[in-house]
Amino acid sequence: MRLLVLGTGVMAKNQLARFPLIDGVTVVGAVDTDPERLSAFADKFNIEKRFLSLDEAIAWGEFDAATNVTPDRIHHPTTMALIAAGKHVFCEKPLAENYAKALEMTEAAEKAGVINMVNLTYRNVAPLQRAREMVLAGELGTIRHVEASYLQSWLVSRAWGDWRTESTWLWRLSTGHGSNGVLGDVGIHILDFAAYGAATDIDHVFARLKTFNKAPGGQIGEYLLDANDSFTMFCRFRQRRARRHPCQPLGDWASERVEAAHLWREGQSRGHSSSQRFRTAWLPRRGCRNRHLDEDRG
Asked: How confident is the model at residue 105 (pLDDT cuts 50, 70, 90)?
């Protein structure tokens, strides 16, 4: 497979450390609108073909698939262009900024007969795979409640670099530069590994978002720091019938909630780059108090 790399940021570098190790995969070209970044990236990974626009790469055409490692807002138009050119796409999450665009991408890929895959890396984690197996086998009985959290601390440490001076991180804090904030960055992981681990689909989502004051005037240079830094989410699963386990009574899946509590980019302490937690809990179907979430005004 001849692979084109679209976008040459941090995640592209992480991917290029792995793609060449896969039998049959050859990276044949790279695309970025920043010529200096493109040149440095292509030189590092010995990529001969370099393009300053996706249109140029598509006109060249000598690739079978592309890995789309562009900012969130760019996923939809670039993926649609690649699909129209008959190319398979490995797209970073989130697939799109909203359901309508994601559905359009899905239907376009199906009509064109190409693959449009989303990079949801936590599906490869062994404990999550095992949790899903246990649920599908009925070993856990009826799942009533799932809790999940994902904490990152790169705003209060320099473990991954200095976000105040590096565009690599600043764009993640600015909606004008294509970011959907922490909700789009790690929220999609929360939703996917909770629903995938619980072996069901999500029917409804409710979230409260918070943006913290991180710089005078809420801006650093051209970057308006308006993307959300924290969210608390409740989700309702679709109802379905669980398989019976010998030690458990037969019952329906609870249409309960996934609670992703206090996902702060600040993290729990300085010096820790990230942490994540996945667990299940069994709650009564009746008699549970509803929790009310108030926006953090601190």
From this structure: very high
Q: Which contiguous run of DSSP H or E holds residue 28? A: strand 26-31
Task: Yes or no: say if 242 and 252 are a contact pair by the CB < 8 Å rule.
Answer: yes
Round to whole Å and give the CA distance between 287 and 153.
37
How is residue 74 written in tokens?
A: 């760019």
Report pLDDT digits (tens) over 236-250: 887 654 443 333 333
User: Are the CB atoms for 180 and 94 separated by under 8 Å?
Assistant: yes
Tell which wins on pLDDT, 252 or 185. Answer: 185
Q: Two tokens at 186?
A: 């790690």
CA–CA dist 267, 274 (Å, integer): 7
Dihedral, CA of residue 73, residue 75, residue 81 and residue 85, to nearest 10: 170
| Amino acid of residue 256 | E
pLDDT digits (tens, 9 = 90+) for 119-135: 888 888 899 999 999 99
